[in-house]
Design goal:
By secondary structure, the protein is α/β, with parallel strands linked by helices. The chain has helices spanning 8-20, 23-30, 34-48, 64-95, 109-121, 134-142, 202-215, 232-240, 285-313; strands at residues 53-56, 59-62, 97-103, 126-132, 148-151, 160-169, 171-175, 196-199, 225-228, 246-248, 260-264, 271-279.
């Protein structure tokens, strides 16, 4: 049996030589010495166990074995070349794409501002946003399906990097005729008897409970969360017809429907710390660009917040 541990470069030399029927012309075409071409084809022949070419004073001619071998091997090399080109193309696309997981409801104005800045600074990065539950995103990150997840959870996971970014205010959407609509700000305790409606599936229920446990550890809603199989945007009209109240970080949420008002949470815990987690070994250039933009936005947001606080205490 021939030695199949072939150097593909030697096979390519043989294919060119078969077309040109001259080692000298092959060397010129490939930009190498003639002795290099001759030596590598001889090595290939020894490994195959048969001669590919007959050497004559007029040049070279294929043997019958050589003709058969090169005829069969040529399509394979073409497939390898095509596969290599496609792989390089896929790698370029992968390096210039960013897959972001978000917890439902966290595609907030602040997050959209970060994505908008990224698009303006890096228009060639292809961004794909995927909604889901925290644990689903942990699985997707570990399997390379997404690059980073925006979350309020502040998770600490082995092999993952976690970073706190900006803070989001939490608002309550209530019916316009509801007594709470008269409040300038609503404390958490005032929601004890209210039904909070949540968009999505069972995961949304668990995520909402985790969120409430994070910002108000002593708070227990129990049965008072109602899951509606609609989009977050469709929740607002349901609030207007007394299906319950809704939580949001979008200060423009009340603009989506008539008959509702938006009120901030009065407690100190009425802000949500947005963080992100990703694999430490992820060396994606697109991820690095996103982190830079998010950090820059976080610094800007912090400055604006401090300035506003200062304005409040200035006589």
């Amino acid at each position: 049996m021939p030695d199949l541990a072939l150097d593909l470069r030697y096979v390519r030399y043989a294919l060119v030589a078969a077309d040109l029927r001259s080692f000298r012309q092959t060397a010129e075409a490939l930009g190498v010495n003639q002795s290099t071409v001759s030596r590598r084809i001889e090595i290939l022949e020894r490994r195959l166990g048969f001669e590919l070419f007959l050497r004559t004073p007029r040049g070279i001619e294929l043997t019958e074995a050589g003709r058969t071998f090169l005829r069969e091997v040529a399509p394979g090399l073409a497939h390898i070349d095509r596969a290599a080109r496609q792989a390089v193309s896929a790698q370029m696309i992968e390096r210039s794409s960013l897959r972001i997981g978000i917890i439902q409801g966290l595609l907030t104005p602040a997050a959209l501002t970060v994505l908008h800045r990224l698009r303006k600074l890096q228009p060639n990065i292809r961004v794909v946003v995927q909604d889901g539950a925290t644990q689903d995103h942990v699985h997707r990150i570990e399997h390379g399906e997404i690059d980073i997840c925006l979350s309020w959870a502040g998770l600490r996971l082995s092999g993952h990097a976690t970073e706190l970014f900006w803070r989001e205010k939490v608002f309550v959407v209530v019916p316009q005729a509801h007594p709470l609509a008269q409040c300038a700000a609503i404390p958490w305790a005032a929601l004890r008897r209210e039904t909070i409606i949540v968009a999505g599936q069972a995961e949304s229920y668990r995520e909402t409970l985790k969120f409430l446990a994070t910002v108000v550890p002593e708070y227990e809603l129990g049965q008072r969360i109602s899951i509606q199989g609609v989009s977050p945007e469709a929740l607002i009209p349901l609030v207007a017809v007394d299906y319950g109240v809704a939580l949001t970080c979008n200060e423009n949420a009340a603009d989506r429907a008539s008959g509702v008002v938006l009120r901030p949470i009065a407690d100190a815990s009425g802000t949500l710390q947005i963080s992100a987690f990703w694999l430490k070994r992820n060396r994606s250039a697109a991820l690095k660009k996103f982190l830079g933009v998010a950090r820059s936005f976080s610094r800007d947001a912090c400055f604006i917040e401090i300035t506003r606080e200062n304005e409040k205490i200035v006589p």
